[in-house]
Here is the input.
Amino acid sequence: MNAGDCIVYVVDDDASSRQSLEFLIRASGYTVRAFSSSKDFLASARPEIPACLVLDVRMPGLTGLELQGELAKRGVRLPIIFITGHGDIPMSVQAMKAGALEFLTKPFPDDNMLKAITLAIDRDRVAHRERLEMAELRRRHARLTPREREVMASVVTGLLNKQVAAELGASEKTIKAHRAKVMQKMEASSLADLVRMSEKLDAVA
Amino acid sequence: MRVRTGTPLRRNAFARYAVPVATVAAAALVTLALQSFSTHVPGLPLLFCAAIYSAWYGGLGPGLLAALLSSGAIALNLIPPPSPGNSVADELPRLVTFTIGVFFVSWISGRQRQAEQLLEQARDELEAKVRERTAELSRANSELQSEIAERLSAEQALQTMQLELAHVSRVTMMGELTASIAHEVNQPLGAIMNYANACRRLLASGMDNAAKVDEALSRIAGDANRASDVIARIRALSRKKPTERATLPVKDLVDEVLAIAKYEIQARSVTVRVDLAAGLPPLHVDRVQMQQVLLNLVINSMDAVEALPMKDRVIEISAQARDSEDGPAIALRVRDHGPGVNPAEEGRLFEAFHSTKPQGLGMGLPISRSIVEAHGGRLHLVPCEGRGAAFEALLPAGEEAAA
Here is the structure.
């Protein structure tokens, strides 16, 4: 059975389809939240836990593809499994290009759906961990004083304390104290660790 | 018409001239026999009677012959004269009297015969005329009968043809809705599959999931019903059956048609607005044929708005009661906000095989019109405000709605 620390969202306008999908996924041990329209889904509050989205392509109002675009615009990186009532190749190509994880045609074998969900949740779990880590790093980084951030930026380029002191126009001793503060506040165990953290922060920034 | 003059006699000449001889002889013999018993028996009356009878029976000639024979008999003293001792010359006045009598009687009997004959002739002519007229009438009647039979069979043939044509066009229209129908059946089937798979997982888990399995099974039954409803609707539409009118609320008609076209409407991102007046009387129509008419109008409207931006793809279905020349009616209208009907095309809209669509057969509107007209209604393009086209079916209202 799957862990209960994740959630599967289902968005499908067709009641039969939505309810049966909800039932199937729940029977496989997942927590499910189902919505009958894209609008309802966007309006809902989602907890910050690993999740994935099972999304019907054709819906009145905002279609599945449009919802995919809207989520990307909002920076929500949720793995999406598309479902459709009929195999529409151009549409599936478009969905996959936009980053969909899977495209299933109804009626689909439950194995395919559940495998896709497992994969999606696993991916989001990794992403989720990274998201948490990033949030932690940002939180730590935010605690640094402006001077400490300058010191950190110079140190991670590989400069010695002396060189940093010359660059920032301060004494080597002061820089050493700042550096110790940075290592402590960033909870870095070594210089290599700090460099890795800095890279991550830069990648996002 | 022939008018015969004179007094022709029906009897032959022998009979006519035998009668005076026989009657005069008989009168003479009877008179003589009577006189042998009594001398008081007068000699003349019986002879006179014989002459009169001969004149009546045979006409003037035999009458005169009888008069002559009678006078001769008296003159020759075969019959004793009333006043004895008279000479033959004395018999002349008697002969004249007899002759006048004979003339008079033969004239009267002649006139009588003439009148009779005229009557008979008129009767015969009348009879002939009646026979002739009767024959003419029966001929005309049989012609009329055969014409009626011909017309009836022609009408029946036409009706059969129209039913066939309507059926063909209905099936064609359903061909256009294949994706829609497949989707409508596919949704509940997919749901059934999901529930079935979920049940297998629940059972395989080894836990007590009886309540969940039961829930899934009842949902399976519900979805199977949904699928079979879709199929029943489609089968009703595709079946070829004779016209069968029944009471049908306008709302039911509209709901059923929208259910059939639901997916198509959604796939083409069309918004359908329905506006039915309150308290409408129901229709008295053939359900399937009227669905065909409305579905056809709805599909036409969807085609008309297809190229528009999504927010403008709107069609409106409305119905209101209206008083027409033929009594209370329901005006069922389908309106779109598309490009409208090209004025040059307007006259040909209801022509068979005339289509403005690349895949169109050009049968939809003409068949819809023939169906509506067979129900005693009318189907028209009606003017509307702003862009778009509006088609209106004016249908005779059925019985008043029961509550």
User: Anything to note?
Assistant: The mean pLDDT of chain A is 88.
